[in-house]
Amino acid sequence: MKNTDTSTNDTKLLFRQTYDYIVTRIERGELKAHDKLPSIRLLAQELRVHRLTVFRAYQLLKQDDKVYVKEKAGYYVSPEFTEHVISEYTERSPIASSGHLKNSLSEIQQVPVSYQFSQSLIDPNLLPNLYLSEYVKKVFDIYPKLMGTYSSVQGDEELREFLCQYMKRHHSIQLTVSDLLITTGGQQAIDLISRVYIRPMDFILVERPTYSAALDIFRQQGARFIPVDISPEGYDLERVEMLMKLHRPRIFYMNPTFHNPTGFTVPPDQRKQLVELAERYRCLLIEDDAIHEMYFDQPPPQPIFSYDTDGWVVYLRSFSKYVAPGLRICAVIGRPSVIKPLITAKSLADNGTPLVNQKIFLHYFESERIRQHLEKLRIALQIRKEIVEEELSTTGWSWVSPKGGFNLWLKLPEALPVEELLKESVRHSVSFVPGIICDPLREMRSWIRLSYSFVNEGQLRDGVRLLADIARRF
């Protein structure tokens, strides 16, 4: 039975991605009005999919008026669709862009609301802001010429050396400064990795659900998603091995510690086995670890990277999210052979993360005060999580209570239309993340991500009650 479900999901995914592939080529101007699409047989060969998959995608393109059919001649680009694409771009800009960029999560977060449950960030009032300002002054005393120079592209060597010692102290991982690249936040790290390691139509494994901005980045590179369900028990490793063996994916993007959006944490035994599978099937594991320190009772397991000896894991460790988000500091950690091409990509992106941010973070993060801050922050976040769970206890919604992190992953009744709920909620100044944008299959219509970390306790109670009340009206 499980194999049948897997086959059905993979078929749905490939058919949808074939559709997206043609739409993207039209939007980029590679296919113009009245141009003939590749034959079903040729496109199936090019994309390494079944001809029925291409046929279904072409039929949907025809149904959506993006293409038309000439009898016994094939499929052609609809002029009405190309006119729509041109007008959409020219309305925004005097010159059309070369592609259609999208960040679904950012679009939701940019809507101004009073009850902001879509931001997976710390409430600024929980951060030691006065203490940070003192450190800013101290850093400029130590480095009076700080604003007058760039950082090295790979990152400030003093910071990288400190992080090597930090990883040794906390995770018993031996590193050298050559093993680290400092990026401007974790999202830039994901973007650089996608540019270096993903080619158009490459298969990649992604969790289902997963961080929606990562999906949008990978889509922009033309990747083909192979979903791996994540549960409170981790992954089905037999399925992971089957998918690696069948599709030979380039990468497996994962968020195994206080997973975004579900809050799940992959157990230690699976972490070791994942490295063994990556080595066996030559699949690069991208371990995104943005909130490792944000546990409630017990620290999480050691990173997957700690089991890697042959360079099959790239570890993205964000630090500033719970210390000083505005500094945007992430360490990309891997073997030099993996890091070197990322340094080149970083040089093309911005020529190095601002040195002032790195120096402030270095001196701030190594202080004793920060250790105390983290302990208080964990307590504050656990209290906020419990407030939300208390307010939702009478709704009939279901969730697995996370052991750390910033989010609740909520299952709503099937009959409740989440897209309509979001529109109505925004009208009442409440926002959340609909599960569909976190799903590579775009089918999780009854799920939402609600972040409890960004608003204060009073707003949290009022906002969750308001959301529940709006949902009852449906």
How would you describe the overall organization of this protein?
The chain is an alpha/beta fold. Helices cover 46% and strands 13% of the residues. The chain contains 16 helices and 14 strands. It has a seven-stranded mixed beta sheet, sandwiched between helices. Helix 2 packs across helix 3 and helix 6 crosses helix 13. It is globular, with a radius of gyration of 23 Å.
Helical residues, percent: 40-55%
Percent strand? 5-15%
Low-confidence stretches: 1-6, 93-98
**How many DSSP-defined strands?**
14
Let me know the average pLDDT: 90
Largest sheet: 7 strands, mixed
User: What gross morphology would you assign?
Assistant: globular
Q: What strand line-up does the widest sheet have?
A: 4-10-9-8-7-5-6
Rg result: 23 Å
- Helices and strands, in order, run as HHHEEHHEHHEHEHEHEHEEEHHHEHEEEH
Please give the alpha-carbon distance between the first and last residues: 35 Å
Number of helices: 16
Structural class: alpha/beta
